């Protein structure tokens, strides 16, 4: 098992060749689980998890983008130069944690809806998550919504802190939610009562 | 008889890019499309695109259609002829067309000096009992109903195919408030991008790999679908059946290039599964084996809108250059080539690279 710091260091092109299913059919060297089910495995997630001291410090972007594909909006949407320049459009995003302030611009820009901002120590007991949300109705500030994990299973409740509609035409709205601290890296979607996903 | 210097068939991303590139070189272009608005596949794509910044990555497909559409409508060098289907190519280089306005149709003819075919691709069918029931759709039809006409195709769907198209349309079905019972995929792994797969998993949609449709049920219309596990040879495994209630069964099992006009024109064709089926041989200038006839976009091999735009630009430039109207061809074509290479460089581009290599091989063998 890697420690956090080296896991973060591995978030770059070519740094993933040693993952379990390197021989998998299909696109990149991601785990067999991800290729078969669409659910990232623990190993996939470990590769993109910011180091603990970074996560403790404040909001930070977590890039759940594991596969080399021809895509780079995260790189040029970041105004702080926190996503290292891509040598090749197929590169995996590599984040400079020192520069990332968790602003969430990349969350709105990513066509894969693969980026989340997580502020683990938002309060003593809760974390803040900024996630992309492309369904109607959008939740409202203060509303309680269902908190869903990566499989769409309801794992708790979340309070909507902010809803950020993009100024740029048709950018992805970003919803800020507050959840119990132990759900910071579990919750990746919300369901709005009376809304699209029905309860 | 219309006599454009360059005629482009199809106003999708490839055709619009070809027309603009040629017209920018000062050539008069006739751009023809069967639909009543330009955009091709893009007019249905409400999701944000991948690809490079030059090809509008991160912008929604419908927005790219609008941007390019505005350019072709306002460019003085491009004449846009909509609601017009190109019917055939004759040995004397004449193309016939049927134009329909307010239910009245008229026949037109054109003899262009150069022809660029960007007709896109058509959906592949899938054979199983019940596939003729109302409610069984191609993915493109579902997308057109929802995103062009604003009609819900049904309440609960089963999607066949976990390539990018199947995954994206499942997402769009959910956005349209249609439940998606499952995505079934005969291959052992998901063909589309992992980010798209993860996106629909977060909505609670299961993806069943190594599964296919056994049959569709219903009296007068689709009521349910039986799926089963398949072995490595894609044969169904008895006893592994699962039943889903559904009033929509959506097939997203691949596309094949639309190349009838090129067959008619006598272009050398080759069967290359990696590129979607029968594809016209073409060189790196997008020229087919018949001098003066070019091909780009999905018609040249099923790929992506981003590469369709670049191959389209290349074809437009090459057509203009062959008329002596593109003095900076080498430089511009070089840029396009580099862009294409970058787009095709990663793991998802492997299939295309293999396909293009095979196309060369077939041509070499044919002499
Ligand atoms: C659901 C879905 C999602 C996709 N997502 C992406 C993505 O995220 N990123 C990406 O890069 N690509 C994506 N693509 C692929 C992309 O849409 C296609 O690769 C692209 O549109 C191909 O462009 P084209 O110009 O070759 O063909 P098309 O867009 O198919 O255009 C062909 C045009 O030719 C016209 N035509 C055909 N025959 C005739 C005729 N005889 N006479 C007159 N007109 C004719 C048609 O009416 C049509 O307008 C997606 C496709 C689908 C279906
Ligand atoms: S959250 Fe903001 S600073 Fe951090 S990578 Fe994204 S855009 Fe850059
Ligand atoms: S924009 Fe999103 S999907 Fe594209 S490379 Fe960046 S993180 Fe991955």
The set of bound ligands, ions and cofactors reads:
flavin-adenine dinucleotide, iron/sulfur cluster
Radius of gyration of chain A from CA coordinates: 16 Å
Q: Count the DSSP helices of chain A.
A: 6
Shape designation of chain A: globular
* Interface with most residues: A-B, 49 and 45 residues
Number of strands of chain B: 20
- Major β-sheet annotation of chain A: 7 strands, antiparallel
Instruction: Work out the number of β strands of chain A.
Output: 7
Sequence of strands across the biggest β-sheet of chain A: 1-2-3-6-5-4-7
Structural class of chain B: alpha/beta
Describe this structure as you would to a colleague.
- The complex is a heterodimer of chains A (199) and B (367).
- Chain A contains six helices and seven strands, in the order H-H-H-H-E-H-H-E-E-E-E-E-E.
- Chain A has helices at residues 4-9, 32-37, 42-48, 52-57, 73-77, 105-109; strands spanning 60-63, 115-119, 126-132, 144-148, 154-164, 174-180, 189-191.
- The longest helix of chain A has 7 residues, at 42-48.
- Residues 1-28 of chain A have low confidence and may be disordered.
- Chain A is of the alpha+beta class.
- Chain B has 367 residues and is α/β, with parallel strands linked by helices.
- Chain B is built from nine helices and 20 strands.
- Chain B has helices spanning 13-24, 61-74, 139-148, 164-175, 194-201, 260-264, 305-322, 329-343, 350-366, and strands spanning 6-9, 29-32, 78-81, 84-89, 95-101, 104-110, 114-117, 121-123, 136-138, 156-160, 179-185, 207-209, 211-217, 224-229, 242-245, 248-251, 255-257, 269-272, 277-280, 293-295.
- In chain B, strand 1, helix 1 (13-24) and strand 2 form a beta-alpha-beta unit.
- Chain B is globular, with a radius of gyration of 21 Å.
- At the A-B interface, helix 2 and helix 5 of A face helix 5 of B.
- The structure holds flavin-adenine dinucleotide and iron/sulfur cluster (2 copies).
């Amino acid at each position: 098992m890697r420690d956090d710091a080296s896991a973060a260091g591995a978030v770059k092109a070519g740094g993933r060749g040693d993952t379990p299913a390197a021989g998998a059919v299909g696109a990149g060297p991601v785990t067999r689980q991800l290729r078969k089910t669409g659910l990232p495995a623990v190993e996939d997630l470990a590769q993109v998890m910011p180091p603990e001291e970074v996560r403790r410090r404040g909001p930070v972007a977590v890039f759940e983008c594991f596969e080399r594909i021809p895509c780079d909006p995260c790189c040029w949407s970041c105004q702080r130069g926190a996503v290292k320049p891509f040598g090749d459009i197929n590169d995996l995003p590599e984040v400079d944690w020192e520069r990332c302030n968790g602003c969430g611009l990349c969350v709105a820009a990513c066509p894969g809806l693969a980026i989340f901002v997580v502020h683990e120590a938002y309060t003593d007991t809760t974390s803040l998550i900024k996630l992309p949300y492309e369904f109607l109705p959008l939740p409202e500030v203060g509303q309680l919504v269902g908190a869903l994990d990566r499989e769409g299973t309801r794992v708790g409740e979340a309070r909507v802190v902010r809803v950020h509609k993009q100024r740029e035409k048709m950018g992805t709205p970003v919803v800020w939610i507050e959840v119990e601290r132990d759900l910071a890296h579990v919750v990746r979607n919300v369901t709005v009562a009376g809304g699209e996903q029905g309860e | 008889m219309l006599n454009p210097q360059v005629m482009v068939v199809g106003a999708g991303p490839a055709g619009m890019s070809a027309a603009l590139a040629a017209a920018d070189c000062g050539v008069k272009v006739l751009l023809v499309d069967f639909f009543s608005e330009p955009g091709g596949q893009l007019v249905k794509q409400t999701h944000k695109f991948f690809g490079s910044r030059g090809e509008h990555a991160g912008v929604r497909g419908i927005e790219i259609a609008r941007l390019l559409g505005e350019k072709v409508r306002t460019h003085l060098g491009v004449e846009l002829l909509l609601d017009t289907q190109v019917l055939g190519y004759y040995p004397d280089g004449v193309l016939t067309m049927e134009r329909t306005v307010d239910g009245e149709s008229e026949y037109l003819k054109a003899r262009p000096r150069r022809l660029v075919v960007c007709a896109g691709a058509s959906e592949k069918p899938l054979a199983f009992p019940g596939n003729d029931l109302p409610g069984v759709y191609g993915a493109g039809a579902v997308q057109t109903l929802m995103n062009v006409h604003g009609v819900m195709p049904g309440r609960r769907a089963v999607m066949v195919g976990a390539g990018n198209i199947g995954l994206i349309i499942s997402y769009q079905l959910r956005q349209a408030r249609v439940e998606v019972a499952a995505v079934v995929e005969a291959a052992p792994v998901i063909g589309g991008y992992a980010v798209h797969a993860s996106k629909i998993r977060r909505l609670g949609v299961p993806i069943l790999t190594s599964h296919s449709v056994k049959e569709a049920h219903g009296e007068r219309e689709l009521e349910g679908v039986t799926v089963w596990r398949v072995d490595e040879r894609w044969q169904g495994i008895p006893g592994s059946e699962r039943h889903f209630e559904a009033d929509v069964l959506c097939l997203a099992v691949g596309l094949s290039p639309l190349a009838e006009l090129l067959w008619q024109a006598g272009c050398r064709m080759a069967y290359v599964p990696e590129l979607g089926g029968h594809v016209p041989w073409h060189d790196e200038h997008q020229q087919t084996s018949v001098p003066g006839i070019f091909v780009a976009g999905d018609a040249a091999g099923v790929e992506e809108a981003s590469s369709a735009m670049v191959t389209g630009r290349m074809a437009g430039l090459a057509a203009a250059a062959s008329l002596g109207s593109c003095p900076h061809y080498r430089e511009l074509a070089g840029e396009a080539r580099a862009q294409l290479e970058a787009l095709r460089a990663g793991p998802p581009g492997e299939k295309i690279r293999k396909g293009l290599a095979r196309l060369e091989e077939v041509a070499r063998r044919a002499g």
